[in-house]
Amino acid sequence: MMHIDCASPVACAILWNWGRILGVDIMGVALGLVLPMWERPPTGGAPSWVEVREMACRAEELGADTVWLADEILWRVPDWPGPAGWWDCLTMAGAVAASTSTVNVGSWVMSAAQHKPGMIARAAESLDEISGGRFILGLGAGHGGGATSFGFDTDRAVPRYLEALEILVPLLRGDGPVTFTGEFHHATDAEVRPRGPRPGRVPLMMGGHSPKTMTAAARYADIWSAFATTSSLPEAFAPMTDQLDRICTSIERDPQSIGRSIGVFVEPDSSRLAEQLDLGVPITGSTAQIIDTLAGFADVGVTRVEIHPLPHTMDALEKLAPVYEALT
């Protein structure tokens, strides 16, 4: 666990805020909540805005570090009864930011396949302004989950993503105007104006499961992000955090200087929904067992855990209230 030290009250406040963002806190692991954004299989019922807002506000009351909004369009999974659509990430993020006051609000994660890099930087500044300096820009390469249907190019997703960073990162950090010409993206004298309350300092979280995307995160990100594919248990992510350590060392970055965020599925009851939806092994059991499992993420080098409850409802969040209260 990283120790936060400071010589003055002002310096301590700044370090403490960044410690929250990276996931460096007294308990060792910061807990976030992934908000419901999609038509839930198997019923297909969509969460209302009222439900999204109430869950965000309840997460804030429980001490969650961040509430996250996914950036997806449309999923068509063969084993599901029909397509599942998603509310728009940026629209909902602005509404959630305006409806909360202390919890961080983040994109989980914005798709570089369906947004131009300069516009991502502009959106991040606007959302940081709306939230009063609470926005975390989560970013990833994206995939074909509905993007192709809406006219976006999804071939060579990783090269497109890596090239987008040549525009997005300097714009986000205030190193403009930016001029760049590449195979997929270009910008001419681009500059983000106006700036929000943290010009050049909006935290950047970058998703990465492959060596190329993990290396990009090690170069540019404040936080590296991954999510459960076959298992939500801590030991499933130890090889990834070890790999991130090696990548950081190879590019001469202190491995302890980058936060590590893991998205997991948590079932506080016996719904067996993860099994039905083929979401891998969830975190489940009694409240004490769930707390113990989540606390175990610190042992594999994880600093943040983002909880996706199953089912994705207020009732499930209330069942997890003792977990948040114990670990935040």
Report on the architecture of this protein.
- The protein has one domain: TIM Barrel (Alpha-Beta Barrel).
- The strands form three sheets. The chain has an eight-stranded parallel barrel with strand order 1-2-5-7-10-11-12-14, surrounded by five helices. The protein has a two-stranded antiparallel sheet with strand order 3-4.
- The protein is globular.
- By secondary structure, it is α/β, with parallel strands linked by helices.
- Helix 4 crosses helix 5.
- 36% of the residues lie in helices and 18% in strands.
- The N terminus is likely disordered.
- The two termini are 15 Å apart.
In CATH, the architecture is Alpha-Beta Barrel
CATH topology-level fold name: TIM Barrel
Secondary structure: number of strands = 14
Radius of gyration over all CA atoms, rounded: 19 Å
User: Which term fits the overall shape?
Assistant: globular
The SS-based structural class is alpha/beta
Question: If helices are DSSP runs of H or I spanning 4 or more residues, what is the number of helices?
Answer: 11
